[in-house]
Design brief:
Elements: H1 2-15, E1 30-34, H2 45-53, E2 57-61, H3 67-74, E3 79-82, H4 106-122, E4 126-129, H5 131-139, E5 144-145, H6 148-151, E6 169-173, H7 178-183, E7 186-190, E8 197-198, E9 206-211, E10 216-222, E11 227-231, H8 235-240, H9 247-257
Parallel strand pairs: 1-2, 1-3, 3-4, 4-11
Antiparallel strand pairs: 5-8, 6-7, 6-9, 9-10, 10-11
């Protein structure tokens, strides 16, 4: 018994009294995904899968219009992905609606208005997709084309694919942009599911990709107060179809959210 006790003391001195420690594990960043829908909060599975593929932990941020609740939600995430969806009420950029304006969602407009300002003030990284790009641009001081066919009739590019189809057109990514650092500069084929687009770019942002008809396809602002990249097309749908060209956008968001 005495010998066993001595061995126990030696083991305690050498290894400590507790069980062997596991290697330290750095938690993956939590990415809040904004929701869409009227009278509900829904997120397409492709957005969730894209965040997972990039190494993030996705959580859905439901549509609420209480600033305190939105602030509490944002304290629990490391970065935000803003998804596509309904049209934005043109009152946010000082215009009256035209007949071709689509469905708007007042609750979602209010929710994202508050959310963007809070993210901007806190320096949370943002990745915007489709409406996400448009609403970021509008809330931070830019404007939109309310309807491309009505207001940009010279455009010959199909920007809104029929339901269930993927219309492919080219975009040109600007050399020296953050987007180019992710995927390279030059021409890329992308999908297209929108009838609105960025018109006047918000202060502090720069255009980093355009389509063949000159419409804005990507914007970004990377400086001391903001880490924002946004695109008009749908990289999450491309990823769901097996095209990983724009997976680096989601990896950028995850990497920025770890800082």
């Amino acid at each position: 018994m005495k010998r066993i006790a001595v061995i126990a003391v030696i083991c305690a001195l050498l290894f400590g009294c507790s069980a062997p420690r596991r290697a330290a594990h750095k938690a993956a960043p939590v990415i809040g995904i904004t929701a869409g829908g009227v009278g509900q909060s829904r997120v397409g599975q492709a957005y969730i899968d894209a965040v997972c593929a990039a190494g993030g932990v996705p959580v859905i941020l439901p549509i609420v219009t209480d600033a305190a609740a939105i602030s509490d939600m944002l304290r629990r995430v490391d970065g935000v992905l803003m998804i596509g969806g309904e049209d934005i009420d043109p009152k946010y950029y000082g215009e009256a609606p035209i007949p071709e304006l689509g469905e708007v969602n007042a609750a979602r407009d209010t929710y994202e208005d508050i959310l963007i300002h809070l993210c901007f003030g806190a320096g949370l990284p943002l990745l915007g997709i489709c409406r996400g790009e448009q609403v970021i641009n509008v809330i931070l001081g830019g404007t939109l084309w309310q309807d491309i066919p009505a207001q940009v009739p010279q455009s010959k590019v199909c920007h809104k694919a029929p339901e269930g189809e993927t219309a492919m057109h080219k975009v040109t990514v600007a050399e020296g942009s953050v987007l180019a650092s992710m995927v390279g500069s030059g021409d890329f084929n992308v999908n297209s599911f929108h009838h609105q687009a960025v018109k006047d770019v918000a202060p502090g942002f720069k255009v980093t990709a355009v389509s063949e008809d000159g419409l804005v396809e990507a914007i970004e602002r990377i400086d001391d107060v903001a880490r924002i990249v946004a695109v008009q097309f749908h990289p999450e749908k491309m990823l769901a179809d097996g095209d990983t060209t724009f997976l680096p956008l989601f990896k950028w968001l995850v990497a920025e959210s770890q800082k």
